[in-house]
Amino acid sequence: MTIGVLAVQGAFIEHEQMLVKLGIPCIEIGKKEDLSGIDGIILPGGESTVQGQLLEKLDMKEPLRAMIKNGLPVLATCAGLILLAENIGEKEAPHLGTMPVTVRRNAYGRQLSSFMTTADVKGIEDYPMVFIRAPYITDVKNTDDTNMADTDSVTILSEVDGHIVAAQYQNQIGLAFHPEMTDDTRIHQYFIELVQSCH
Ligand code: GLN
């Protein structure tokens, strides 16, 4: 198994260190050719506008979108979640737009830019969450509240103060916080299990 970590901008090294800790081989994705042969991809935090522009400039946006639509597992954190979102509000066009959620950028305001809290993420108790100029999810297209196995629905994985901060749609996991910034590897482990289940 090889996990690609998008390495055009942002906090990609920290994700690589988490994968090393878990003994999972990973490669940095800096150009289109790097995309071939990966079993999953991590989209790190950073600045989504810059990342989106770079994906376009490097001719990676369409191939990556196609791979995700075809089921490539994705762990997207913060700016990465914004890249995946189908809707970023009225003023901005979506980037990859593969996840049927609406996000609000810098949702906690620019002044309260960083904070830490602890909350449960479906199946994982007391997960330490680092938020840095974070978005949150304001709307999901369908939820699976009915508990029916609907492959076209979004599962809410975590809420903090009434806001959705983690969700999953098919093989796409989107997080508003940074799981690579603490020692807790449980979210990366959950992602690796998802990748394994797709093999
Ligand atoms: N505020 C950034 C954006 O909108 C995301 C911040 C982050 O990834 N930590 O792109």
TrEMBL record:
E.C. no: 4.3.3.6, 3.5.1.2
A biological process from GO: pyridoxine metabolic process
Keyword Lyase listed: yes
GO molecular function ontology, one term from the record: pyridoxal 5'-phosphate synthase (glutamine hydrolysing) activity
Listed HAMAP family: PdxT
Family: Belongs to the glutaminase PdxT/SNO family.
Protein's name in the database: Pyridoxal 5'-phosphate synthase subunit PdxT
